[in-house]
Amino acid sequence: MFDDFPPPPPPTPVDYEDEEAAVVQYNVSYADKDIAWSSNNYIENIIAVYDYTKDKGDELSFMEDAVIYVIKNGDGLYEGVFNQVTGLFPRSYVESIIRYAD
User: A Gene Ontology CC term for this entry (predicted)?
Assistant: First the structure.
């Protein structure tokens, strides 16, 4: 059945030497300002690129596109605040929110 269709074309190569191609831009309007429950002493706010469910009691669960406020930067882990809850989570699940000056 699947032998009747040709394979899909290969993806277009991306030139990562070009700085603009390597930057991911998010269109998340609620990430542009601090919300009422955000920590006043955060290092940066970041965005979740994957869902994460905590495995231990001191970890933080969140869903993709969540804006998290980082309060500590550890070895492979962040400590952050999301929905008024503080906890640890892996850095590989999030990315920095890049803002450009107008």
Answer: lamellipodium
